[in-house]
Amino acid sequence: MTSKTALQVILEELQPLAGKSLLDIGCGKGGLAGPLRQAGAIWHGLDPAADPAQPDIDCAPAEAMPYPDASFDFAICINALHHVPLAHMGAALDQAARVLRPAGQLLVIEPQAHGALSQVIAVIDDETEIRLAAQTAMDRCRSLRQLRRFDYPRTETYTSFEAFCDSLQQIAPERAPAIASKRAALAAAFAAQAHPVGENSTTPALWALNQPMSARLFTPA
To answer: Which end of the chain, C or N, has fewer beta carbons within 10 A?
Structure first.
C-alpha cells in the first residue's frame, strides 16, 4: 500500500468539498485550513487550546461544541479523538453527530496502537490504551452510522533526531520534560526504528518512521 497523508484521505473521502462547510475538530493551529479552503471548503476549526487571535478557530472542547444543530456538511477529527479525555470521547462523537446536517459526513483518522513511530513515542508517552479506547468509543457510538472503515500506511519524515523531538513538543508541549529526562532512550529508539530515505544510506536527506493509520467515515444515525 502507498503511504498517504491525512489531507489525501480527506480529499478522497469527502466529496465534493467546494462550497461545503467543514468543521475541523481538534484542529490545533489550523494546519489543514489552507489546503482545504483551496479545495473549496468553508473551513472552521475547533480546539480546546485555540489562540483567541485566530477568529476562525473556536476555543472549546469537542464534547461541548458551541454550534447549533445541523451546522456543517462535513466534519473531520484527525489524530485528535484519542486526545479527548476518556470519559468524554462518546460525548464528543455525539456532538459531531449533532452539528452535522442529516446527510453530513464525519471522517475520523486515528493512529493505530503499533508501528515504528508509535514504538519510539512510547518511550516518553505510551498511547496504546488511549488509542484503543478511541476505537472502542467509535464502536459503541449510536448517534453515528459507519459508512466505511479502512487502514492505510503513513510515513513521517524528519531531517534529524532533533527535528523529531521538536515535532513531538510542537504537537504536545507537555511532553517536553519527558523528552529531556529520557533523551538517551528516545534517541536509541529513534536510531533503531527510523530508516534513511533520499540521497544515500550514509548521508540520508531524511529519516522516516512508519505509522499505520485507521480511518472511519460516518453519517448521523
So the answer is: N
What does pTM read for this prediction?
Answer: 0.91
Residue of 38, 37, 84 whose CA lies nearest to 65: 84
What is residue 1's predicted lDDT score, i.e. its pLDDT? Answer: 67
Residue 171: the pLDDT is 79
Question: In DSSP terms, which residues pair with 206 in a beta bridge?
Answer: 197
Q: Where are the alpha helices (DSSP H) in 122-214?
A: 128-140, 161-171, 176-181, 183-193
Name the CA radius of gyration of the chain, rounded: 18
Instruction: For 72-109, write each residue's pLDDT tens digit.
Output: 999 999 999 999 999 999 999 999 999 999 999 999 99
DSSP-derived pairing of the beta strands 144-158 and 195-197: unpaired
Residues in the chain, pLDDT under 70: 1, 199-204
Contact indicator for 5, 77 with CB cutoff of 8 Å: no
Q: Which residue has the cell 494546519?
A: 31
Q: Which three cell numbers stand for residue 54?
A: 485566530
Residue 194: per-residue pLDDT: 95
Domain ranges of the chain: 6-220
Q: How far apart are CA 115 and CA 153, in angstroms?
A: 10
User: Homologous superfamily of 6-220 in CATH?
Assistant: Vaccinia Virus protein VP39 (3.40.50.150)
CB 122 within 8 A of CB 200: no
